[in-house]
Amino acid sequence: MEVKEVLFMNKGEEDSSYFHNSSFTDFYIYIYEYRNQAFVRNNKLIIKIVSMQQNLAAKCKPVLEKAIQSLFTENEHDHLLPSLEVLNVADLGSAATPTTISVMETIIDTVKNSCKELDCEIPELNFCLNDLPGNDFNTLFKGLCSFVGEKYKNVSCFVMGAPGSFHGRLFPRNSLHLVHSCYSVHWLSKVPRLWDEEGLPLNKGKIYISKTSPPAVREAYLAQFQQDFSSILMSRSQEMVPGGRVVLILHGRQSTDFTSNESCYNWEVLAKAIADMVSMELIDKDKLDSFNVPHYSPSPEEVKEVIEKEGSFAIELLETYATEVGDKNIWNGGAKDFSHALRSLTESMISHHFGIEIIDKLYDKVTDILVQDFATQIEPIKDTSLIVVLKRKM
């Protein structure tokens, strides 16, 4: 599978679009949206949503603000920006999500405040929004037109698209001051090789690492992540000025167990739904056995090892942040929304491999499985994010 050709988030603003589900898929917050107006089913759900949203926002926004401020406030020989005319920012994997606008707002506001404190002119800001070519740049740029032209009239701000894979070079040498990426770099450049010496599939009946997967599957996924993450760092190191910052938020895991729910739950549900359709003879078994997702949820130790081995960046922050995404007392009845969110992320891959004709039935099956899980689970399902801040070495 050529990942860069078949991996993209669902387009438009329909129920299963990435834009419609981005509040959930970016932050794993259960918000019921319709035409950008959030509504909820009971007061208990309101409290839970607001609490989760505020907690994650409170965790991530100050991290980005501090990374920007550090560009201004380091010692006089190392600082980058007080005399800089243009600040170049890259957002990797921005897709069509309101998160992109929120990140841009944080960057602009922090730059303005930092320049005010230092009594220096605000540099022009150049935002390069990157994603694979199949993603919905049209929806993204529609939302940005009013944002750039109305809210920040007194700031010289430029926005451009940068289609392509962040696993390789995207920008000129020594041009970037800040790189940001929210829930993107856990996607791999390709599916690892999961065949034995005789050409038989190693991961039968599953689409990701599972408890029934042989050790070779775990080893192949880890090796592919190490190769891809190292390539991301190497590419950015060539593109960034010394002292520039990288801020990454990605799916990960705290557990040493590759098969824990925090990293595998979505893929287990999807694999079970596909297997059910195989048993109904709606999907060929060989199709399931030959399909695996190009995704990996690393541990902090695995991320740290790659960064230190690649050698271009110093780690300023590496933390985990866990949220509950499957509390049956809160989400019961919300399985369809969970299914929409999963569909927004995976439909392009699924339809390419299995055919578009099975899509609706498959995600209906996903919803059925989620309803059963949410009704019977004892412990809430947890999702773990890794928050990483890197400094380009001098």
UniProtKB/TrEMBL annotation:
Gene3D superfamilies: Methyltransferase, alpha-helical capping domain, Vaccinia Virus protein VP39. GO terms for biological process: methylation. SUPFAM superfamilies: S-adenosyl-L-methionine-dependent methyltransferases. One of its GO terms (molecular function) is metal ion binding. Keywords: Magnesium, Metal-binding, Methyltransferase, Transferase. InterPro entries: MeTrfase_7, MeTrfase_capping, SAM-dependent_MTases_sf. This is Uncharacterized protein. The lineage of its organism: Eukaryota, Viridiplantae, Streptophyta, Embryophyta, Tracheophyta.
